[in-house]
Amino acid sequence: MRIRYFARIREQVGIAQEDVALPQNLSTIGDFVDWLEARGDNFARALADRNAVRVAVDQLHREHDEALDPKALEIALFPPMTGG
């Protein structure tokens, strides 16, 4: 699975993307974020405020309580965006 980090989350994690093998026991997006957060202090800081973490799976926005598709190719994490 390719994981991509954007904006503030990328800065705090310290990498723009990585390829990882996800544990089999992750059933929701929230489980995935929990797993990431437990990977180290930099991840814990970047993901601590769940209201400030948006997730897209294969370029489609997903909520934290939605199922994690085991066939997905990419997960992106980014802060809320504003626009004009």
TrEMBL record:
<protein>
    <submittedName>
        <fullName>Molybdopterin synthase sulfur carrier subunit</fullName>
    </submittedName>
</protein>
<dbReference type="Pfam" id="PF02597">
    <property type="entry name" value="ThiS"/>
</dbReference>
<dbReference type="InterPro" id="IPR003749">
    <property type="entry name" value="ThiS/MoaD-like"/>
</dbReference>
<dbReference type="InterPro" id="IPR016155">
    <property type="entry name" value="Mopterin_synth/thiamin_S_b"/>
</dbReference>
<dbReference type="InterPro" id="IPR012675">
    <property type="entry name" value="Beta-grasp_dom_sf"/>
</dbReference>
